[in-house]
Amino acid sequence: MKSLRAILAAGLVVLSFGVAVAKLPPPAPLTEEQKAAAEATKAKAAASAEAAKMQLAKAEDRVVAHYTAEQKAKGKAVAPQMAAAAPAAKPAAAPAAVPAKK
Description:
The structure is a single chain. The chain is an all-alpha fold. Helices cover 63% and strands 0% of the residues. The protein has a domain at 31-72. The longest helix has 43 residues, at 32-74. It starts with a helix and ends in a 28-residue tail after the last helix.
């Protein structure tokens, strides 16, 4: 009996939540100031991401330099493996050939 009540209560909660959400008005359109603020925030985030990439690259370079120096001190030859600095752009796919009409 308790489980039936719990199921009914859960159903009532879900139903009432659905009705409440359905009655919410649509969000107001963004003003020019809000759009400008969003663009500025997006630009800051992009700049921050680029700075983080550069810091990561520098840290990786330091680790590689330390590792190669350590290996040379041990007398082992280390061949550096050069990774692509940036992912190569994928070549554009050729458009599919259109069969000739008879």
